Amino acid sequence: MKIAILGTGSVGRTLAEKLAELGHDVTIGTREVAATLSRTEPDRMGTPPFQVWQDKHTNVLLARYIDAANGADIVMNASNGAASLDILAAVGAVHLDGKVLVDVANPLDFSRGFPALNPVNTDSLGEQIQRAFPNARVVKTLNTMTAAVMVNPAMLAGETTVFVAGDDAEAKQTVRDLLQSFGWPTGSIVDLGGIDGARASEAWLLLWIRLMGPMKGPFFNLKLVQT
Ligand SMILES: NC(=O)c1ccc[n+]([C@@H]2O[C@H](COP(=O)([O-])OP(=O)(O)OC[C@H]3O[C@@H](n4cnc5c(N)ncnc54)[C@H](OP(=O)(O)O)[C@@H]3O)[C@@H](O)[C@H]2O)c1
User: Fold this and answer.
1) Looking at ligand 1, which atom is closest to the CA of residue 142?
2) Residue 44: its pLDDT value, please?
3) Whether the Cβ atoms of residue 100 and residue 74 lie closer than 8 Å to each other
4) How many CA atoms lie within 13 A of 51 on its CB side?
5) Residue whose CA is at the smallest distance from ligand 1 atom 34
6) Most buried in the list 66, 121, 138, 189, measured by CB within 10 Å?
7) Residues 139, 143, 148, 152: is their CA dihedral positive or negative?
8) Residue whose CB lies within 8 A of the most ligand 1 atoms, among 53, 79, 87, for a mutation test
9) pLDDT score at 45
10) What is the overall mean pLDDT for the chain?
11) Cα–Cα distance for residue pair 214/79, rounded to 1 Å
């Protein structure tokens, strides 16, 4: 499949590497190709400059957001949550209509110094995207864990849980298939229902961020167990 990943950060790169390894035709989207390739310093999270990564991943293309999405079968939003709506607007509805739009982003808001969510509680980024692009088939998934775990769930001890939420059953099945190709067993994929389920999976971020301390890093995940 031809897959566009909007976002050059660690999530975009991790998803791109895995999808290319699985044989997909992958293009990463960015604001300005030349600006992204000319960066020489790691970002504030310590992620190395894009060019350093690209040199080792020549099978993944880099293009402007709109060019990456043009002609893609699936579009994945792996952009900064505060910028996601603007980025998707730059892509344009014409390149999103009818497509599966996999939303991996979280609407983190650092404006008050501590990590908060905006929107939260009665709305979510997933729903905002679905409302802004009513003909896109938005599926929220993978936003509840660190990038490395998204594409390699077996790196954790035991089977853990990944959520899907979206209004379109067929789109959710496409995403389930993708998740299974990443190594998520069928039973580990939990369907939260419609796209309003994104409120719940995004809200988990508050606890997830807090847990990085006691867990001594990001390599953990939620596991649902029943009697
Ligand atoms: N890091 C994780 O492990 C993790 C786990 C789960 C979910 N998430 C979520 O996944 C998303 C991606 O996270 P990340 O850490 O890989 O990258 P990030 O640093 O949150 O986002 C990087 C991308 O956002 C774009 N961007 C940032 N500010 C922008 C602005 N003002 N206007 C337009 N574009 C802007 C950048 O564009 P350029 O390419 O042009 O620079 C870049 O492509 C986020 O929503 C995050 O909350 C992250």
Assistant:
1) 6
2) 84
3) yes
4) 9
5) 83
6) 138
7) negative
8) 79
9) 85
10) 97
11) 27
